[in-house]
Amino acid sequence: MRDAKRWLVWTLRPDPQRPDKPKKVPHYADGGLRGKTDTPDDAARLVTYAKAVKALSGSRYAGLGFALGGGWQGLDLDGVRDPATGALEPWALEIVKAIDTYSEVSPSGRGVHLIGRGTEALKTIKKDKAGVEFYTKGRFFTYTGVPINGKASTNIVTLAPIYSLAEKRWLSQAEAHAPNLPLKAGGSPRALWFETREKLKVLLGILTNTDEYDPWLTVGMVLHKESGGSEEGFAMWVRWSQASTKFKHEACVEKWNSFKADEGGVGIGTLIQDNKDAYEKALRDQAKPAVLDIEDDPLVAHLRAGGRVDFSSVKEVEFYIDGLIERRRSVGLVAPGGTGKTTLVLDLAIATALGTEWLGMQVQQGAFVLISKDDLKADLDGAFKSMVEARGLSDKDAKTVLDNVHLFSLLELEKAGLLDFADESNGTPAATQLKERLIAGLRDIKNVRCVMLDTLRQFAGGDTNSSRVMGIATQAVTSLAATLDCVAIVPHHTTKVGAREGTVDQYTGSGSAAFGDNLRVILVLFKSSVQEMQDEISVPHEVAAALVTSEVLKLTDTRGSLRRRALPPIWIARDRYAIRRVDGRPMAHTERDQRDIEQVVAAVKAGAGSGDSVATALKWRKQRAAAAVRAALESGAITKEPGRTGKLKTAP
């Protein structure tokens, strides 16, 4: 099991809906937030136990996790173990003995996790009342390494044979004897834990982990006692312990589960008394109102300067890509997965190194840097080699490209610390030092024109639905571009609706709207078709015919700026590693609308009775079909029967 590439790490994040039970948030060992589960990309980023332990050591993570799926399944029994004696509920003990697979104590000390093999598409069982859950994929189990009754089974068995028995027999017993366990004796009542927790956070901030055993043990005992042995208390102890050079996650788990519920000894009051001066100073510092020094305040000085208009300081707009991207801009490249955005940007890298045109637009010559948390270095190098070969460059130009294109992968980088722009480990997202580290590392590369960070989701460091996380990440990208005097590009995924309907605007990117608000340029890339292209531009028949074997892409410039007008959509033909622009005469709106109306009429004549059926018949996106149907109705070319769901008909 330790050799299986199913391991990850996790953090605790406050849950506004359940303040007493923080969420466990999974991360890959490379630092990225785990996204969609059970995909090839997800499986490729899970690691062995040894690599996950390395990621855990000295980091912000609270523990290890084992991802179910990929042939691994799990049974979770909650509230079946007495943490003081280790005794299991009789029906739960029967399960453990019957299955004889790997089983261990959960982080709370009150539950049991059993892990086994299986590829059968068994449905998930989830019985909240009984505290029994059976998962086949889509979840992960927190890992403690503490075996049931002190000895772990070395077997990893197939769980399918016991599935039906568990569902019919044990679940009924579990529901009949559903435990309602109180907090352990000696633990703080739940209502007081919120107040105690805040005091403990202050204490942990002033206590220095000196690598000595007794202080480490004392802090663990206090956290166990005051939290009632909860997972949140354990995670706080782990994070504090990670500052020690002697940190071992297994040692924390072993000691935590050895603490007794009714154990006396040191409590939070003793710790506060022993560190009274430092604790009171920390509280005073927290309570101090910010003192505003008006005379030294930069904003006050800036406003007092008057803001007078100075035409002599106005310079010509300097472009990195002529007419499309200005220098020192932060750029979001939004596209659904698998669209080929990385290939497109690598093509831009070649144009940057040579100072040639890219998609018909002149590019400033200089160095191009790609830093990826999405692809391995060998894969980046291999793809780039194929692109250089596809261009048929001379030996001289190929050398220029290799001298000026720099590809980095952070996936295999170990002991590099936090590689995210935001850190959520303390509950509230806070900016890290990643931007400063990137700037320091790239300063020695001469004449950098563009830096690409792939992808924004991997670099953000938290939930990209959070405006705070997205704000921190996008502001860091914008600041990096300004400081290095270059363009900074961050690829990002579309929303599900945007990908399905082809929605194109500055807010097409998934997650918080801070993405569209904070980045200066938003480009949207979608897969398209020759038919869609011919609906928008007029191209010679022979050009369209030559595109039959090509992949057609549409790049949309969603907005301009005060000094730049947004460009019309750019149509691209891609043949694996060969990229070229397709030019044509833009069709007038009236011409395009009339063509759409004619096609809608033909579809209705053929039996399409609704907007959705028109979209299906014409192979259009629903958004376009709805607009064309409205135009056809307004023009009188078709009619609609009365009622909300009235059928479309051709005009008499």
Form type: globular
Q: What is the annotated CATH architecture of the largest domain?
A: 3-Layer(aba) Sandwich
Question: Between the first and last Cα atoms, what is the distance in angstroms?
Answer: 71 Å
Q: Helical percent range?
A: 25-40%
CATH topology of the largest domain: Rossmann fold
Judged by helices, strands and strand pairing, the structural class is alpha+beta
Chain-averaged pLDDT: 82
Range of strand content: 15-25%
Spatial sequence of strands, sheet with the most strands: 16-15-19-20-12-21-23-24-25
Domain count: the total is: 4
Total beta strands? 28
Q: What count of helical segments does DSSP give?
A: 24
Reconstruct the topology from this structure.
Elements: E1 7-13, E2 23-27, H1 40-45, H2 49-56, E3 63-67, E4 72-77, H3 90-99, E5 102-105, E6 112-117, E7 125-127, E8 132-135, E9 140-143, H4 160-176, H5 190-206, H6 213-227, H7 231-241, H8 249-258, H9 268-274, H10 276-287, H11 298-304, E10 319-321, E11 325-326, E12 330-334, H12 341-354, E13 357-358, E14 361-362, E15 367-372, H13 377-391, H14 395-404, E16 405-409, E17 422-423, E18 430-431, H15 434-442, E19 448-454, H16 456-460, H17 467-484, E20 487-492, H18 496-501, H19 514-518, E21 521-527, H20 530-536, E22 537-538, H21 541-545, E23 551-557, E24 570-575, E25 578-582, E26 585-586, H22 589-605, H23 611-618, H24 622-635, E27 638-640, E28 648-650
Parallel strand pairs: 12-20, 12-21, 15-16, 15-19, 19-20
Antiparallel strand pairs: 1-2, 1-3, 3-9, 4-6, 4-8, 5-6, 7-8, 10-11, 13-14, 17-18, 21-23, 22-26, 23-24, 24-25, 27-28
Helix pairs in contact: 3-4, 6-7, 7-8, 12-13, 12-14, 15-17, 22-24, 23-24
